[in-house]
Specification:
The chain is of the alpha/beta class. It is built from 9 helices and 14 strands.
């Protein structure tokens, strides 16, 4: 078999390019979020459970939310996939051309032939490209309400913390792009060669084990660096304190909100129901 120059071999580990998922839409990303809310694909209000730590206080002093990479998630099975590399020669050629346009046409043809002759290499390349793309995507996770006992226990510091309520129509740009998580028994089977750019990463990030179905999660994806991203203060419209939240913590957060000019927040507190396994929300 012909040996190819080293420069062609290096292309095997280049990541897939990340492009805007809705690049064919005439709407801006923010307009798409508003449309999704109006057509009930995404809820208008998203909830984020937080503990009593410094990072929670920083949300009020910085009006920023932290977007994490998938490697930072608490579930090691999160963002896994089963790779499917079945494709025609034409599909493979399109895939190689799309991701390696800086190579000559002749070199790209050689890469296609090498993949066709070595399916295990192709599988390795596609798998690594998917995860390289995933590393360029950051995520912030939200729930659907402030009533979930397990979410309070797992993410609200055993009911001592709080739950933030965001109105995403007040700042749709901050919540580009939101997707509901789907819960399954098996990893998603994805063919990155046939899939449109960006779609594969979305499918990986929005598929979780059925064991997590109670979270009813919405994930906001950003195709940029991990870290803090700003939101407009008017988007934070509610704070619910857990049923074990201390008076000191409640006052601390209310003071931070006031000092930092959060003017749209309704403050509530969760109380344990006396008759069933639930919480009752009352103003505080």
């Amino acid at each position: 078999m012909t040996e190819y120059p080293q420069k062609i071999i290096t292309i095997y580990i280049l990541p897939l390019s990340i492009v805007r998922i809705v690049s064919d839409s005439p709407l801006t990303p923010a307009e798409i979020v508003l449309q999704d809310v109006a057509e009930h694909r995404i809820p208008q209000h998203l909830y984020k459970y937080r503990d009593t730590g410094e990072n929670t206080s920083n949300i009020f002093t910085q009006n920023k939310l932290y977007f994490a990479q998938s490697q930072q998630f608490n579930d090691p099975f999160d963002c896994q996939l089963s790779v499917d590399t079945r494709c025609t020669k034409a599909e493979l050629t399109q895939f190689v051309n799309r991701n390696n346009s800086h190579f000559s046409r002749a070199d790209r043809r050689k890469i296609v032939e090498k993949y066709l002759n070595d399916p295990s290499l192709l599988r390795h390349v596609v798998n690594k490209a998917a995860y390289d793309s995933l590393e360029k995507t950051s995520v912030c996770c939200f729930g659907h309400d402030n009533l979930n006992l397990l979410m309070w226990a797992h993410y609200g510091d055993s009911h001592r913390g709080l739950c933030l309520k965001f109105d995403i129509t007040a700042d749709p740009t901050a919540f580009v792009f939101p997707f509901k998580v789907r819960y399954k028994d098996s990893y998603p089977i994805l063919n990155h060669i046939r899939a449109a750019e960006g779609v594969s990463v979305r499918e990986i990030i929005t598929t979780k084990s059925k064991d997590w179905e109670y979270e009813n999660e919405v994930r906001v994806m950003k195709f940029q660096d991990t870290g803090l991203h700003s939101f407009k203060k008017q988007a934070l419209v509610g704070v619910t304190f857990g049923c074990k939240a201390s008076d000191t913590f409640i006052q601390e957060i209310k003071t931070l909100a006031s000092d930092n000019k959060f003017e749209n927040i309704e403050f509530n507190k969760a109380y344990a129901s006396q008759s069933k396994f639930s919480v009752i929300i009352k103003p505080v």
